[in-house]
């Protein structure tokens, strides 16, 4: 692609007309794939979201992308890559679609309170070091209609901008921006992108419902710390550090 500036993310680029799930395929080939391999499909027949949910991935309507990474990181560090990817996606949406989006901590990209993109990070390895990481990014680009259960909850770039968008420059921009932030993250750690996460956050300074071992607690999200955790202050004044993956956080 003439748009791709990244030096290793997406240099090995596998494109499919139809696939079950780019994340499943990525995990399958990851042991022998080169670091930075990108997998893109026009359509996914079993696109997956978080918590075992289905991800609608119709033909040509979105970017269904997975990236294979092989850094020297512990799983605890690797989960932070979801937020690195989120920052990259927000920048790319602004760059290519000229519209502002924000991050619902830690991994949903939202426009006008509706979800336009989800990120699913999966990994394999040992407690002290991962073998590989797969970052799956699904962006609703030219979707015009969502199934009934997603109405009011999901949106697409074309719905929000009123334009049909070329997916190629957007895909390349995501690979470029992800590589940029990924390098910064590997060298300087999460704290170096913390300010962008906070700037783009739609969760901060809002009330959130946190579910901790089946208990619902309402508190106010007051900060994202140097490790990417959400700091929540509860009604009784108690302050808790919420790690992504630990809990489910919902806006109110
Ligand atoms: C979520 O918000 O629940 C995460 C959605 C992730 C969807 C992407 S699309 C490309 C990749 N392949 C999948 O099966 N899922 C991710």
Beta-strand segment tally: 12
Decide which structural class fits the backbone.
alpha+beta
Biggest sheet features: 7 strands, mixed
CATH architecture of the largest domain: 2-Layer Sandwich
Low-confidence stretches: none
Keywords: ATP-binding, Biotin, DNA-binding, Ligase, Nucleotide-binding, Repressor, Transcription, Transcription regulation
EC number: 6.3.4.15
Function: Acts both as a biotin--[acetyl-CoA-carboxylase] ligase and a repressor.
Enzyme class: ligase
What is the structure about, briefly put?
By secondary structure, the chain is α+β, with helices and mostly antiparallel strands. It folds into 2 domains: 13-199, Bira Bifunctional Protein, Domain 2 (BirA Bifunctional Protein, domain 2, 2-Layer Sandwich), CATH 3.30.930; 205-251, SH3 type barrels, CATH 2.30.30.100. Helices cover 25% and strands 32% of the residues.
Give the helix/strand layout.
Elements: E1 13-19, H1 22-29, E2 38-44, E3 62-69, H2 75-78, H3 81-97, E4 102-104, E5 108-111, E6 114-125, E7 130-140, H4 157-161, H5 167-188, H6 194-200, E8 207-212, E9 215-224, E10 230-234, E11 239-242, E12 248-251
Parallel strand pairs: 1-2
Antiparallel strand pairs: 2-3, 3-7, 4-5, 5-6, 6-7, 8-9, 8-12, 9-10, 10-11
Helix pairs in contact: 3-5
The structure holds biotin.
Biotin binds near residues 48, 65 and 137.
GO molecular function: ATP binding; biotin--[biotin carboxyl-carrier protein] ligase activity; DNA binding; transferase activity
Protein name: Bifunctional ligase/repressor BirA
Organism: Thermoanaerobacterium thermosaccharolyticum (strain ATCC 7956 / DSM 571 / NCIMB 9385 / NCA 3814 / NCTC 13789 / WDCM 00135 / 2032) (Clostridium thermosaccharolyticum)
């Amino acid at each position: 692609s003439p748009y791709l500036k990244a030096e290793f993310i997406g240099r090995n680029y596998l494109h499919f007309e139809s696939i079950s799930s780019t994340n499943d395929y990525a995990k399958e080939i990851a042991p022998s794939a080169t670091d930075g391999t990108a997998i893109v499909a026009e359509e996914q027949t079993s696109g997956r979201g978080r918590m075992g949910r289905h991800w609608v991935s119709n033909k040509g309507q979105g970017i269904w992308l997975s990236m294979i990474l092989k850094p020297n990181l512990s799983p605890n560090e690797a989960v932070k890559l979801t937020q690195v990817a989120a920052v990259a996606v927000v920048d790319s949406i602004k760059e290519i679609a000229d519209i502002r989006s924000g991050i619902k901590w830690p991994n949903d990209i939202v426009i006008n309170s509706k979800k336009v993109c989800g990120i699913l990070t999966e990994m394999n390895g040992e407690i002290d070091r991962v073998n590989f990481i797969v970052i799956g990014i699904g962006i609703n680009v030219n979707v015009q209609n969502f199934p009934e259960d997603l109405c009011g909850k999901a949106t697409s770039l074309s719905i929000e901008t009123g334009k049909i968008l070329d997916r190629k420059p957007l895909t390349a921009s995501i690979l470029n921006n992800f590589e940029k932030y990924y390098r910064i993250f590997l060298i300087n750690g999460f704290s170096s992108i913390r300010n962008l996460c906070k700037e783009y956050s739609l969760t901060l300074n809002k009330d959130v419902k946190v579910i901790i071992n089946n208990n619902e607690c309402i508190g106010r999200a007051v900060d994202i710390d140097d490790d990417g955790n959400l700091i929540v202050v509860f009604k009784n004044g108690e302050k808790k550090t919420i790690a992504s993956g630990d809990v489910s956080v919902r806006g109110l």
